[in-house]
Amino acid sequence: MKKTIITVVGKDTVGIIAKVCTYLAENEVNILDISQTIVQDYFNMMMLVDMNQAKKPFGDISDELAKVGEEIGVVIKCQREDIFDKMHRI
Amino acid sequence: MINFFEVNETNKMIEKENLDVRTITIGISLLDCICTDLETLRKNIYDKIERTARNLVATGEAIEKEFGIPIVNKRISVTPIALVGGAACKTSEDFAKIAETLDQVAKEVGVNFIGGYSALVSKGMTKADELLIRSIPLALSKTERVCSSVNLGSTRTGINMDAVKLMGEIVKETAEYTKEDDSLGCAKLVVFCNAPDDNPFMAGAFHGVTEADAVINVGVSGPGVVRTALEKVRGESFEVLCETIKKTAFKVTRVGQLVAKEASRLLQIPFGIVDLSLAPTPAIGDSVADILCEIGLEYAGAPGTTAALALLNDQVKKGGVMASSYVGGLSGAFIPVSEDQGMIDAVMAGALTLEKLEAMTCVCSVGLDMIAIPGDTKASTISGIIADEMAIGMVNQKTTAVRIIPVIGKGVGEKVEFGGLLGYAPIMPVNPFSCEDFINRGGRIPAPIHSFKN
Predict the structure, then answer these.
(1) Chain A contacts of B3, Cβ < 8 Å?
(2) pLDDT higher than threshold 80 for residue A1
(3) Count of structural domains within chain A
(4) Which range marks the domain in which residue A79 is found?
(5) How far apart are CA B168 and CA B381, in angstroms?
(6) Which parts of B144-229 are beta strand (E)?
(7) Cα(B194)–Cα(B394) distance, rounded to whole angstroms?
(8) Residue B421 above 90 pLDDT?
(9) B68 contacts A79? CB cut-off 8 A
(10) Which residues of B touch A33 (CB under 8 A)?
(11) Domains in chain B with CATH codes
């Protein structure tokens, strides 16, 4: 299963999770885990998602998520979990 | 599961500390292109490279997107052209035509450099080797993306001093041919001792004859990441210092290994090696010299530099070999001058000289790299510099190289701008005393005693 990590970082505001989750639901991306915290008014969210059933290719989802982020003033990054796994796990 | 801290650490390395994959290089064998007719040979070469590498750039970009890590260069290395063109080329001009073909196909598939306009002459030169070497100035002046390398010696064979003499003249001639562009041709020409067959980095990449038909080699980088990690252990003992470099090199190399495997899978070309080098760029913070300063030197070149570089090089290897199944290429710290802002600063401050750089090459992964010298330096003096560097490689059983640029029309104190990843360089003084009689002797320097291991 291709797992992907989505990170959302930016100034906290109403509806960040709602916007991101709506986009993911519309595109058949399944959320496996969410953790979220606020540090000094800064919103930090990390999601583990499964894109196997996704309607669009990885690159499109990544670009569109970045756009969703721009609209609500946060930075959204979408990366395959492998890069973190390889770097931090033996 | 991966946690916040780990995700942030990785992304900080990428966004703030210039962590990237420096190059995905496809090595392509051209041995099956050989033909006695030059035009057919050129067509065979063009077709094979185009066929093998047509998806390289798109694949590289897809991997960048999926992992969120920049892959700075996509490149190609080919079988040394002296071997491929020997049957068809009767003159140096014939060889230069093959260089033009390489340039055309590099542009077609969208790679920024193609390496392998090379000859391996560590013991002797064939007629074809000599014709290729003599064609280098013309070939590099007529092409944009072709890189050339010549292997002049090895621990097993000794040093081919006839070729060393010739290469001094060729470096000078290449500088003349490209003098309108600050002798840029010399930035794409490197000579080696103990050249590796699987090096993915330019200008010295070529696809050795011991390699498979096509292979993916990946060069990682990350001087900025190492320096930032070392900031946190300022004043600590060497044990802590070394441990920190090792851990960081491990992390960086794991990313390289991941990218290499993915590229190999997508392109359906076997994975060769990961080259775990610390390769600087002119970008601020992406500097090997800055690491040396972080270790405790005022400038690169200060007393202690060779020791600091030796430990850095060794720890990078120790961390890296654990992270990849196959490590190869040059693997270590590069110390180019023009491509490293910290090195440039050190030269400008008077801390770093050609002689100190030579000492540093005894313990780093390559050699005298991207060093600008006065345009009126004699060819025999350049040969002398090359011979010294080849001797270091031969005796220490390591790769050494020289990529030196005599900038025509410029002298000590002036600057030369190469642009892009090649950066800019202050012109450094060269020892003015002659070595002409030494270079003119001709013949070979025999292999050292410790090479006889059979």
Answers:
(1) 35
(2) no
(3) 1
(4) 3-88
(5) 8
(6) 146-154, 158-160, 189-193, 214-220
(7) 7
(8) no
(9) yes
(10) 1
(11) 25-193 (3.20.70.20), 214-451 (3.20.70.20)
d(CA B227, CA B352): 20
CB atoms under 10 Å from CB of A33, counted, come to 11
Mean pLDDT of A45-62: 93
Residue A13 sits in a domain of what CATH number? 3.30.70.260
Q: Any chain B CB within 8 A of the CB of A87?
A: yes
pLDDT, residue B80, reads 98
Beta pairing partners, A79: A5
Percent of chain A as helix, strand, coil, to the nearest 5? 35, 40, 25
Please report residues of B whose CB lies closer than 8 A to that of A59.
62, 65-66
C-alpha–C-alpha distance, residues B30 and B85, integer Å: 10
Going from the C-alpha of A85 to that of each of A52, A80, B67, B251, B437, the distances in angstroms are: 19, 9, 11, 10, 59
- Residue B247 per-residue DSSP state: H
Cα A11 to Cα A16, A61, B3, B273, distances in angstroms = 10, 22, 21, 43
What ipTM is given for this predicted complex? 0.88
pLDDT tens, residue by residue, B13-42:
998 888 999 999 999 999 999 999 999 999
Residue B276: CA count within 13 A, CB half-sphere: 29
Mutate to test the interface with B, among A38, A60, A64, A84 (most CBs of B within 10 A): A84
What's the pLDDT at B283? Answer: 85
Residue from B264, B313, B240 nearest B321 by CA: B313
Q: Which of B66, B69, B218, B324 to mutate to test the interface with A (most CBs of A within 10 A)?
A: B66
pLDDT at residue B257 above 90? yes
